Every structure is written in structure tokens, then in C-alpha cells.
Design the sequence.
């Protein structure tokens, strides 16, 4: 019985040692997958799934202006219209001490902190496309350095009355 116990212990130790040796040469790859499948009743999605990630407004040294951002969205609400607003109100580029105002429009409507219709019922029911544009005010000559902004646009499905 003691021989069997010693043999089993030795066999287990050998198995653990060999698996540890193999683990030293392991290679791993982390893969993060996201799939966002909209409902057929309501959705507002940018055509470019990467829109909103690390966007850049380039500075034009000749005109002294920043380039604007533009993205086309697919919009649908089979039960009414679509309203939108900016959470917290209009955004601005900020460098820690100074700011440059941003104007965000969706389908030609300037967005504020108050929800307002951006796509009417007749257009949103079959589905349509609408452009979002984000434009910066012209920076003053003293406004230099790295400016950043984070804004959240909320889209609401507005039911028919």
C-alpha cells in the first residue's frame, strides 16, 4: 500500500512539473468582441462604427480654424419621431484653463441640453439617414495647446400622440 502511495505521489509530482514547464512557453491573445444589433423599431447608429473614438479636429494654420467632424447616422423609429439632446448641455474643447465652444447639429438642428425633434415621424418610420456635424468656434490667438472634449448625445424615441 505504501509503495502505491509513493508511486502515485511521484507520478502526480512528475505530471505537475511537466505542465509547469510547458506553461513557461505559453502565448496568449486576448480578444474582445462586441456586436451591437439594433432593434427594428428604434435605432440611431453612426455609419462608421468607430465614430466617436479618438476624433481629431485639425488646426488650419492659414485660416486659424479647426476642422469640423461629420458623420452620417442611420435613424429609425417605427412608432413616432426622434428627439436628441446633449447630456449636460453644449460641449466645448477644454485645456484645463480655457475653452473653445463646440456646436453640434443633427439633421440640421442645433443640439442643446433640451430634447428637441431631429427626425420627424414621416421620415423616421421607414428609416432615414441624417448627418451629425460638430464644429468648433475659431480659437483666439492665445488659445494654444492640447484641447479635449467629451460629449454624450442622447437620442429619444418619441411615441406618436
Sequence:
Amino acid at each position: 500500500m505504501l509503495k502505491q502511495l509513493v508511486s502515485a505521489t511521484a507520478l502526480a509530482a512528475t505530471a505537475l512539473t511537466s505542465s509547469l514547464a510547458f506553461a513557461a512557453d505559453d502565448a496568449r491573445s486576448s480578444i474582445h468582441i462586441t456586436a451591437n444589433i439594433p432593434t427594428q423599431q428604434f435605432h440611431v447608429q453612426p455609419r462608421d462604427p468607430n465614430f466617436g473614438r479618438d476624433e481629431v479636429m485639425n488646426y488650419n494654420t492659414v485660416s486659424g480654424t479647426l476642422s469640423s467632424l461629420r458623420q452620417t447616422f442611420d435613424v429609425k423609429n417605427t412608432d413616432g419621431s426622434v428627439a436628441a439632446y446633449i447630456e449636460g448641455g453644449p460641449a466645448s474643447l477644454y485645456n484645463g484653463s480655457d475653452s473653445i465652444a463646440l456646436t453640434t447639429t443633427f439633421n440640421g438642428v442645433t443640439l442643446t441640453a433640451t430634447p428637441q425633434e431631429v427626425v420627424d415621424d414621416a421620415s423616421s418610420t421607414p428609416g432615414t439617414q441624417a448627418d451629425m456635424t460638430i464644429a468648433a468656434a475659431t480659437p483666439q490667438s492665445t488659445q494654444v495647446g492640447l484641447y479635449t472634449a467629451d460629449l454624450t448625445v442622447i437620442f429619444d424615441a418619441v411615441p406618436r400622440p
User: Anything to note?
Assistant: The helical segments are 2-23, 121-124. Residues 82 and 157 are 5 Å apart (CA to CA).
